[in-house]
Design a protein that fits this description.
639 residues; alpha/beta; Aconitase, domain 3; Aconitase, domain 4; 3 domains; seven-stranded mixed β-barrel; 22 helices; 30% helix; globular
Length: 639
């Protein structure tokens, strides 16, 4: 039978399958420091001696500013616990996990699970790379399968070649304009068509990276001669394996895109799918330009930016920030003279880190506009709630930096020796000295900021409490658990929980804690596409700590639903979405016969305040039922 790429990888890695889900073997894992401390605390609780994956890497790339002792303590713990468990540790300054893993560890035909939603970046080399909550990654390192509903596949068929004013970022922004951030849960996107061969691995990785904003499980490209050239430049020929779809392979959905018809695109505040053509917002003033993050920070991206900026000067009232994606990119760009050229034009060069993308530094001015090449522009994510953040590709960003306003880029000569060479990674400087290989001889060290995973309680047969907050559509995990200056508390759940919904309702924490202490449950009422964005499991852990027992929504994103179940919170959907209007904040709510209803997938919510009954539903696998009954995954598998 003809198979597509997704089916080929899943069939090779399939361990379990039932009517609700599949379980696949995971070859590699990655963590980053903002999620990693909790992952390894969970792994300690599970109680194994060494990881059972073929390769696991712990990256430090989020909290590298190290303001206060908390981040440095986390990094010391991460380094020492990696040694204990047989994990490679990537030191601060080595680069962003997705860019570095793509360069040094990604492999065709393999599976990668990461505690970061942009793990699909490695789909650019034909690797099935999936973002997940930290406890799912810990379980994979302990040898457990990774479970998900058997995915549907969407073929995006690319034809032709991009115009010289466009780039890969414009492709994914266009796709976001068509598919939006809602309604794509359960799909894996597979790219095909003759247009694929015109895209380098860094360009493919950019597209896969921002597939996370669509809400799909992951995205993947074929592994072909372009992929082989990438691995050769990285001195990793052994990691290449040809992988293409069979003739006649079937897909659940197909979208065709003529690359030649593309035009430069930009996403307006405050969502990655709020996409328009650059011409529609041209001349909009921008006070800050940021180039980099895990989306557009490759050597090719920096070379393209330099081709536009070289010999020019950034205006005095415009701030240009550039962050290379990895130490490899930084060293190679320095050797090529690109770094000095960018500095001469007025750019500020950041270390290879997530930085501005997560609001950890470079927050914009009050009431200003920032144009960035990263992947998310959620409200408040930059660290300045009054700022408007636009997303574009490198060409638009560099051109706009010279004008101080959103500007259409000029055509780029892709045949230019420096640009074509950077795309093929000619002259690449490979240096793995910032990886620390495990020895098994280092003592684990935990500073005072590092706590323990909270202990969940088995779900009761009656859940009685209050609608503590009611939120709208498209609530992100940034909305639930802010990043930026709050990131340093992720190892300390009691402290971090004080900031749940901080940017939406700064009194939520005190209300929820008071209800919890009275023995009442907290209910969260939500609209469509609840839990978009980051994979941060703290958006489930901290609400669970505050006594949230149930989240009721119109629809929910994949990773967040899994995280809620993993920490003993019941996720339920309105059968009739209009019933969302019946519930108001402060209403007294009850669920009866919860254990029976979990088995039957049908629930009745009693709104005591309104004297109304509301039908809810959710189908759980036997595994998920086990987690809910036990009070969370950690208790069910080893805690």
């Amino acid at each position: 039978m003809a198979k597509n790429i997704v089916e080929k990888i899943i069939d090779r890695h399939l361990i379990e399958e039932n009517e609700h889900e599949i379980g696949i073997r995971i070859d590699q894992t990655l963590t980053q420091d903002a999620t990693g401390t909790m992952v390894y605390l969970e792994l300690e609780t599970i109680g194994i001696d060494k990881v059972k994956t073929g390769l696991s890497v712990s990256y430090v790339d989020h909290n590298t500013l190290q303001c206060g002792y908390e981040n440095a303590d986390d990094h010391l713990y991460l380094r020492t616990i990696a040694d204990k468990f047989g994990i490679i540790y990537s030191r601060p300054g080595n680069g962003i996990c997705h860019q570095v893993h793509l360069e040094r560890f990604s492999s065709s035909y393999k599976t990668l699970l990461g505690s970061d939603s942009h793990t699909p970046t490695c789909g650019g080399v034909g690797c099935l790379s999936i973002g997940a909550g930290g406890i799912d990654v810990a379980a994979a390192m302990a040898g457990e399968p990774f479970y998900m509903p058997r995915p549907k596949t969407m073929l995006i068929e690319l034809s032709g070649k991009l115009p010289p004013t466009c780039e890969a970022k414009d492709i994914i922004l266009y796709i976001l304009s068509k598919l939006t951030t809602k309604g794509n849960v359960g799909f894996i996107i597979e790219y095909g068509g003759d247009g694929v061969k015109t895209l380098s691995v860094p360009e493919r990785a950019t597209i896969c990276n921002m597939g996370a904003e669509l809400g799909v499980t992951t995205s993947i490209f074929p592994s072909d001669e372009v992929t082989e050239q990438f691995f050769e430049a990285q001195d990793r020929d052994k990691d290449f394996r040809k992988l293409t779809a069979d003739n006649g392979a079937k897909y659940d959905k197909t979208l065709k895109i003529d690359l030649g018809s593309m035009t430069p695109m930009v996403a307006k505040p405050h969502s990655p799918d709020n996409v328009v053509a650059v011409n529609d917002v041209a001349e909009t003033p921008v006070q800050q330009i940021c180039i980099g993050s895990c989306t557009n920070s490759s050597l090719y991206d920096l070379t393209v930016a330099n081709s536009i900026l070289k010999g020019e000067k950034v205006p005095a009232d415009t701030d240009l920030v550039i962050a290379p994606g990895s130490r490899q990119v930084l060293l190679t760009a320095e050797k090529m003279g690109i770094i000095s050229s960018l500095v001469e034009c007025g750019a500020r060069i950041m270390e290879p880190t997530c930085g501005f993308c997560i609001g950890n530094g470079q927050s914009p001015q009050t009431n200003s506009n920032s144009l960035r090449t990263n992947n998310r522009n959620f409200f408040g994510r930059s660290g300045t709630t009054s700022a408007g953040v636009f997303i574009s590709g490198v060409r638009v960003a560099a051109a706009s930096a010279l004008k101080g306003k959103i500007t259409m880029p000029k055509a780029i000569d892709e045949e230019d020796e420096e640009i074509s060479g950077s795309k093929m990674l000619v002259g690449l400087k490979n240096d793995d000295s910032m990886f620390i290989r495990p020895t098994g001889k280092v003592d684990v060290i935990k500073g005072p900021n590092i706590g323990q995973p909270p202990k969940g309680m088995p779900i009761g047969d009656v859940i009685s409490g209050v609608a503590t907050i009611k939120v709208a559509d498209k609530i992100t995990t940034d909305d639930i658990m802010p990043a930026g200056s709050r990131l340093k508390y992720r190892s300390n759940i009691a402290k971090y929980a004080k900031f749940v919904f901080e940017n939406l309702d700064d009194k939520f924490h005190s209300r929820a804690a008071a209800l919890r202490d009275e023995g009442k449950a907290n209910f969260i009422i939500a609209g469509a596409s609840y839990g978009q964005g980051s994979s941060r499991e703290h958006a489930a852990i901290c609400p669970a700590y505050l006594g949230v027992k149930c989240v009721i929504f119109k629809s929910i994103e994949r990773i967040h639903r899994a995280n809620l179940i993993n920490f003993g919170i019941l996720p339920l959907t309105f059968v009739d979405k209009r019933d969302y209007e019946i519930i108001e904040e402060g209403d007294e709510l009850e669920l009866h016969q919860v254990h029976r209803d979990i088995k039957d997938s049908q629930f009745i919510l009693f709104n005591i305040t309104k004297n109304r009954k509301i039908r809810l539903e959710s189908t759980f696998s036997d595994r998920e039922k086990k987690y809910l009954y036990a009070g969370g995954k950690l208790h069910a598998i080893g805690g």
